Amino acid sequence: MKKTVRVICHHEYGIPEEVASVETWDIPAIAPNQVLVEMKASPINPADINRLEGKYPIRSPLPAIAGNEGAGVIAQIGSAVSNLRVGQPVISLDRVGNWCEAYVTDAKNLIPLPDGTPLEQAAMLSVNPPTAWRMLEGFVDLKPGDWVIQNAANSGVGRAVIQIARLRGLKTVNIVRRKELIPELEAEGADIVVTDEMPLSKQIRDLTGNADAPLGLNAVGGESASEIAKSLSDHGTLVTYGAMGLQPLQMSNSLLIFKDLRFRGFWINAWYKRADTGEIQEMFDQLIPLVTSGKLEVPVEKTYPLTDAKEALVHACQNGRTGKILFVIN
Ligand SMILES: NC(=O)c1ccc[n+]([C@@H]2O[C@H](COP(=O)([O-])OP(=O)(O)OC[C@H]3O[C@@H](n4cnc5c(N)ncnc54)[C@H](OP(=O)(O)O)[C@@H]3O)[C@@H](O)[C@H]2O)c1
């Protein structure tokens, strides 16, 4: 058994590719309730970038191993662990420490996967699809045929929204920044895809035939969020979960007075904290078969080994990608 592993860690906060370094760390001994996971894949998410920058609401004690999700295989189990076996594929619910060759964690922080699960896709299963799932489940009682309007529709979350919504019989209006994304999102199940030329709300009203849209999902902010809000039906809900455009929300008074809209927020970390184990498992019981059957799939633009951390981070910060940037490990 290996005694040391390569990790991507940081000793300070700052520009991601400048503060991230590849180092060799000792593997701690495993306690009876713990396991050693050999990591196979882990994506670079916007939250990872924000964490390295020190702009995320959670700051780890430094030095810290980065990486807020990933998938791997159990390499060793503690004497008190009965629900996992060596060789078992798993995803990690640890929100840091995934960018490494192997790490030790409590068995309760892992979700077992069926043998043969595609681990690159599984590595992206614990943050974005649950965010999409919870936002479609947790705010509005959506019925088949209801419209959901979202921006950043080609993001990991956005694609999960499209794919899950289609399976639930919901219809989606999807806002993107680039015309070339339209055919591919339509192929994934998007009903309407529009580029973000203003005024968006008129385009959306015309394309949906002014249909009721009780839910909007906002990962951008600024004018894009206002236009989604204007397109919602009376008493509709706009859920903000990201701020990629770095612009504050600005809403006209009339949207509140005459439409009585609800403005809500969502953070998957807070949901995991308040959900019980049964609720989390129930969600994965629905999501895992979607990944194994290929019904939930996120494109990957490029994979990197851990040793190319800096290059991978520069790439992940670029706009206009065709998919996620992923570390493929071991
Ligand atoms: N609240 C939560 O619990 C939660 C959970 C997961 C993710 N998130 C957030 O959700 C967002 C998407 O995450 P992800 O992992 O799905 O992203 P991703 O796959 O890395 O994709 C990034 C997306 O952001 C778009 N984008 C980048 N800069 C933008 C700008 N200035 N204006 C408008 N759009 C811009 C990109 O569009 P182009 O392709 O055109 O560049 C792309 O659609 C992030 O803000 C992330 O932090 C939140």
Q: Which properties best describe this structure?
A:
2 domains, 6-stranded parallel beta sheet, Quinone Oxidoreductase, Chain A, domain 1, 330 residues, alpha/beta, Rossmann fold
Instruction: Tell me the overall shape.
Output: globular
Quickly name the level 1 CATH class of the largest domain: Alpha Beta
Which stretches of 5+ consecutive residues score pLDDT under 50?
none
| Ions and ligands | NADP nicotinamide-adenine-dinucleotide phosphate
- Helical residue percent band: 25-40%
Helix count, per DSSP?
12
- SS strand fraction: 15-25%
Classify the fold: give the CATH topology of the largest domain.
Answer: Quinone Oxidoreductase, Chain A, domain 1
Average residue pLDDT: 96
User: What's the domain count?
Assistant: 2
Write the layout of secondary structure elements.
Layout: E1 4-10, H1 16-19, E2 20-26, E3 34-43, H2 46-53, E4 64-65, E5 71-77, E6 89-92, E7 102-106, E8 110-112, H3 119-122, H4 128-138, E9 147-150, H5 156-167, E10 171-176, H6 182-188, E11 192-195, H7 200-208, E12 215-218, H8 222-231, E13 237-240, H9 253-257, E14 262-265, H10 268-274, H11 277-292, E15 300-304, H12 309-316, E16 324-328
Parallel strand pairs: 9-10, 9-12, 10-11, 12-13, 13-14, 15-16
Antiparallel strand pairs: 1-2, 1-4, 3-5, 3-7, 3-16, 5-6, 6-8
Helix pairs in contact: 4-5, 7-8
The chain binds NADP nicotinamide-adenine-dinucleotide phosphate.
The site of NADP nicotinamide-adenine-dinucleotide phosphate has 26 residues, from α2, α4 and α5.
